[in-house]
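Let's do one together. I've listed all components of the complex below, 953 residues spread over two lines.
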Amino acid sequence: MDEYKKFLADRLLSDEQPITYRLLSRALGIHVNTAKEMLYDYHTYQNGIKAESIHATYVVYGTKTQSSTAGDGDVEMSSSMPEHEPLSETVPTTTLTLVRQENLEAALAEYQEVVSIHVYSLAPGPQRDVSLLYDVAKSLSEFSSKEDPLTAGEKYGTIRNLNVRRRDRQARPKPGSSTSQPTKAQPAKAQPAKAQPVVPIKAEPAASKKPSPFEVAAAAAKLKKQPSSQTPPSSETPASSAGKPAPALKRGGSGGIMQSFAKTKPPKPKPEPKKEEDTEMALSDDGEADDEDIAKEKAEYKDSDAVRKSRKQREEELRRMMEEDDEEEKSEEDPADEEMEEAPEPEPEPEEEPKAKEEEKEPTEITTTSNGRRRGRRKVMKKERVMDEQGYLVTIQKPGWESFSEDEAPPPKKPATASSVSSTPASSAGKAKKPTGKGAQGNIMSFFAKKS
Amino acid sequence: MVSLNDVAGSLLQKPTDSAHTVGTRTDSQYKPLTTFNLSHQRSYQQQYGDMYFLRLTKIKPAVEEVAAAAWEDTVIGDERAKQVERVLDVRQGELCWVVGTVYMNLQNKPNILEDVSKDRWISKPDPVHKYFKEDETEEIMLEDDSGRIRLVGDILHKIGLATGCIMAVMGTENSNGELEVIDVKFPDMPPQPERWALSGQPGTQGNGVKKVKGEDEEMSGQTGGKRKKVAIVSGLAFSGSDASYALELELLLEFLLGEVLSPDAQSELSEISRLIVAGNSISGSDVKPVTEEDKNKNKKYGYDASAYNAVPSQLFDDFLAEILASIPVTLFPGPQDPANSSYPQQPIHPAMFPNAREYTNAPGSKEPGWLDIVTNPWEGEIDGWRALGTGGQNVDDVYKYVKSEDRLGMMEAMCRWRCCAPTAPDTLWSYPFQDDDPFVLKDCPHIYFVGCQPEFGTKVVSGPADQSVRLITVPSFSATKEIVLVDTETLEVTKVQITTA
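Okay, and this is what the predicted structure of the assembly comes out as:
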């Protein structure tokens, strides 16, 4: 019963933060009207213990006395006006006033009739500027953004509307706050289909795309063949675990991209993510529903061409987005893949990582090693754009040689991806073609990243 | 005079165990029209002249009817007034009447020919408060496709006129070649449709039902006897820098959601079935004018945070997303909103609202979106009443032509002129319409509201055929903190003011 008093004491007396009825209602998950009463109760209670320790603001709503609704000048005006026909009808005006407790009596005196009055907020000290409450109001999103407004509103006493229509979410992942949103959804969708080991993801947007592109691509490709093998529950895991940083992730940076290609692990126990889902609705506010929707969709139209096409598009998109995050991915390890840990590639400097790897896989002629720097030539895939007989521009990839030195900026990423694909156990011959396609895509982000 | 002890129904009490109820909002019967939507593949190659021709052709029969009825048997000094077809057919000394388009030449009015001859090429004209000046001589002319004639006469100064309205004048041409005006007539209000003409009355087998009927009928049972209101607000002016009314906006949000106030008042709030945002939702004060220096700076690739402040639109998006869970919204663009500036303004692109766009309708769907982003001006049916709304530019522009400050009077005049934007395309920038002038009112609205006005005002005007129009000027919330509530049964208007002390 008195739990709220403790909460309010913490907030007001210990943290010295003002609180509004809305914030209290969100924090405790109660109806706003109850929250208003609690604020009032606490106000009387606390000031009973120690006078003037808590200051309140009130909301007064009602009709003001006619003369006081208009300013002084207007009163005179209106009395001198009657000979003219007034330009506008006078209409009943209700006034909602937010007033500090010091001014409450004065404010009430202006009213002819008061329909309702309640405590709006409490603050630890006298509030000189009520507009500061705006900041409190803004912090409300910390509590409420995690919920679906449609269902949460009922709990808090928002007037509900039975006719609310929202657009079908599956068609359009919520653009949300960050661009990472769609990506987050995509791997989540691809993974369950393959019953892939669930890869914990870091909270930050970039890292949330941790599953390697190839793995996901492969997963997505497989998905076509065996859509029935999806395990929806696990689809929640990536999304929900994104909410809190997985502690395991911090276990050293020894892992390489190879780890993501580890053999399939048994999926994580399902109950756990389920539980998480309840408490952590928020982060998956949309992502989650999308996943499920998409998964459902997949099951429904297994083989229709249209779906396949759109799926391909999605994969394509996904792969592109994945590419952007190659760097981060490589520097992170996958804790789920323990067996891979015995064969990590020595990578002293994270920045060198992509390069080091690619050098191993490519025919490289090292000519110089002066100053500890390696120089030489290596084989790279070069893009060439030519016009064919029909006048179309065709981009072809040709192997070519390129000289490099170690302290030079690493070459474009294409070689790296191409080579790693070829060594990927997960990618079968049939799929090999896709990654190359992706290589041809080029990645503008890598361009910027390297330069800095 | 109220003291604290008198207040009943307050929440100044200890928390009770009884659960508080959650109100259910009344539904909104709503059918937008697409009168002012432009095609996506529109061309700007046409001449503006066609608009005047179209307007005159459309309105002329109505004026002629009114004028003929009034002047048919008018005899002044043994001479009987007779109609002449074209302005140039007016003969000196003959009493006649003629229909044409008004053109006003005012001292401060921008003049394209002058701009060209003086080699002025600025994209935005200097803001002018009024084109009209008390002691300046104004020239009023009447023109049609044949030519124009200057009008003189005292009566012209008694009535407010603006370029682009269509009227009939009776008089004689004097020796200076000017038409001495004795009387003028306007087309007056167009026919007013019945209530529920478009959407069909809920619960009955209304004729011409185009709306999803199932929904209407289903709902009518629950809302029987309940009053319904529509809230209209304009000039929310969400700003990234000016926080002086941020708390009032927050209170407005709580008000619309029905979270503030006590249970009785909350149930009253649930009668508000729709929110109309009539323009200027985003503050224009955050927009930095582009200086020469900015232009010469090297363009950065991609998003340049210094060139664009996204905070106002984000705040507005958050606001919308939050209230949309409880109340449907019709959103107009206004002069400061990110939409095209020429009339009719096209809907703000939903991409501006990453969160709230979830509530918009899917492209191509027939049903109005829960968040309906519409044109300015806009026409539609709200709870059966035909409504016409604008973001205010049309009134602001007519305001510059006349001496009067009476904006409701200007709105009334527009109804009587049968044109909701007479000064387009002269001083009110407009799309060069080719086939139709949508600003001509085909149907007389029941509610005509105009947003972004300096102060609130309302009145009811009536027309010759029992038309009755509720005119409302909606003030800017950022300035007055007022919102307007229209009862959709009686069309009575109330307003709510939000203050902090």
